[in-house]
Amino acid sequence: MDVAAAVWTAIALATVPGAVLGWVSGLKGPWAVAAALPLTFSVYGLAGWALGETPVPFTFSSMLVVWLVTVIIAAIWRIGAWTLGRGRRQAVPVDGSTGPPPARPARTWRAWSTGTFLDPVWILPAAGVATGAWLLISRSLDWLKTGPHGVDSVFQGWDVQWHANMVRWIADEGVASPTRMGELRNLETGDPLYYPAAFHSAAGLLVELAGVSPTEAVNLTTIVVPSLGLPLSVALIAWKMLGNRGLTAQIAAGVAAILVVGSPVLYWIGQYVGAWPYLAAVSVSGIVLALFMLVPYRPLAAPAAALSLAGLTQLHPSAATIVVLGLGLWWLLRLLIRPARPAATRRGAVTTRLRDLGLLAGAGLAGTLLLLPQLLSGTEQAEEVTAWDATEDVTRTESWVKAVTMDTRHVGDFFSDVDPTLLLWVAGFGAAALILWRRNLWAPAFYLLSVWLTAHALRPFDVPGAGVLDLIGGLHYATAHRLVMPVALFTVAAAGVGVAAAIRLLTFAPMERFATAHAGRWRVGSAFASVILAIPAGWGAAVYVADTSGRGAEAAFMASFDSTRMVSAADRRAWDWLAEQPGAYDGLIAGEAAEGMGWMYAYNSLPSLYRHYEWPRVTRDSDTASTYWHGPLLGEGVRYREDAANPIDQAVEDLGVNYYYVSPWPFWAFQKPRWELMHGLWASDGITPVYKDGLVAIFAVDDAFTEEELAELTAPGQSPDPLPATADELAAVAGPPPPA
């Protein structure tokens, strides 16, 4: 399948299941499409976990069965809700009168079409979202195709090796349960490990349907998902900031969706650091937030909101704080003051507010309960996440400035020539319009909280309540380049509002209230002029983001694809060679985890002992540790008995290690090279060098092979570089020893 077809397959996999599920559950067409991403990943995550509790592998067919079950449940919910609502409408009047209830007034075309695809309010936002998504996807693909191996280029980063290996495992073994990731990483002990797998499940399905490699699948998935999600998120945030369906909201949503392409700290830095599932979760956070905000006005959307929260959490749980904090502030500063349903009495005012709170809390609780078995398994990993510390050597003033200007880690490396001043001024104008015109306090409050969290990550505050900041920030690894993402989401959304407000002012829309004699004509004329101006505004936004982020975006996106920091052409050649050798798939392949050897599993399923740059969960006296620290002692015997098996021989046998793989250098500069493996294996009596290509070397464990197999492995022409002579060969050349 060519790249274009694979991209469209990835788009379909990311959207179609969720869009259908959302529509069946009660969302109208445009909302179902908007909610498609988190709903789709909710299905993938739940299907992966549920199937992981059974012998049934996770495949497209088995996932389809789970998806159909959820669709049937959603249909039952919708039918039940409609029946209950119809029953209430036909109930006997509360005044005790008898006889049939009065007939409901006929619904007008406008009332019937509101919120559907026949409602034109979605056109401008959709145009902006499509433009933003196209800019991100097309540019990313064009650059990636120029990589050393095109779309199959290896991302030379820390976490992506693990993501690619998860995709390989899902594709090969059919295990997509986040609670079973210990089977992949902790090969010796099998200790449990929780790692959200919805993102990887989608990539695994892409491997199956499009016939691409795991590397290609993870590359394409990480382009498609945030490219669709980020424009949608900021569009919906801008829409909800204004709090109505008016033309200003439509223009703001469309423009914001384009402007998000130019934000360095969202898509581009997120791609560079390899935080791909995290970026995917952040990219759908605005969608989930907006969907929850719909629930008090349309309770039928509650199941979709609950499932969307489950989908976001199964991409990466950290991003759930964006939804929880944003929704809490919206309820406190907006919905509590102006409830979804007005009330005429004091008792009714209390009841309607309790109803709103109950709907929001019920949807959130339902989404949490869906994931309860998974979340309980992930408690220990959450503690590991919160242990990170990424403070920087900055002053207090610098921490605030960096947070507001979104000048966090890596921005200066690639976007030093990008000046955010214009964007910040436009966003400031939009914020002023929100506060003074729409009486919006929740969005500025969330923005300020996000800025505070980012500044705290750069330089912690020593004030009462800082522990709360530590708790929230710790869930995002306490790193400013992650915590700044919500700042950027709301800055871009506010900038969209600023552009829309300026357009409406230029077309004299506020003057409508004074044109009492011709208000209708004024409204139509102003709206027409606003739409006409919105088109060049969108075009200008596209030009602006291309000019401001062009060189930096390409450099950031390709930086980890163009290098050979972990995987070189020599590594690929070595893995291709090893895949053809005896015993390659019958046991494990040991080496140095920090050298990136785990990529061999994602590349062609070679069973590396390490699947992540970080170590598996083992003790210092484990077999894994023995093979790592003392590999050169293989075949060296014990004291007084050189031909006896030693503990290292036993550890290698117990693990089933057939080969050692060496490929310097380690990933981080502070990591010391494993000189014992790089040099010691060449002199070990229990190891035979079988392959050398520069610094890349492969060694066969003697006891795992017959003499004939070892002779085949060391035959002339097998190794690109000449191998050193063995002890037997040296003895043959030297001849028999002289007589005593």
From TrEMBL:
What are the record keywords, sorted?
Membrane, Transmembrane, Transmembrane helix
Q: Where are the annotated segments for Disordered?
A: 712-740
- The keyword Protein transport is annotated on this UniProt entry: no
Transmembrane feature ranges: 6-24, 31-52, 58-79, 217-239, 251-269, 276-295, 315-337, 357-376, 422-438, 445-463, 483-506, 527-546
| Protein's UniProt keywords contain Membrane | yes
Matches recorded under Pfam families: DUF6541 (PF20176)
Q: What is this protein called?
A: Rhamnopyranosyltransferase
Provenance organism: Corynebacterium maris DSM 45190
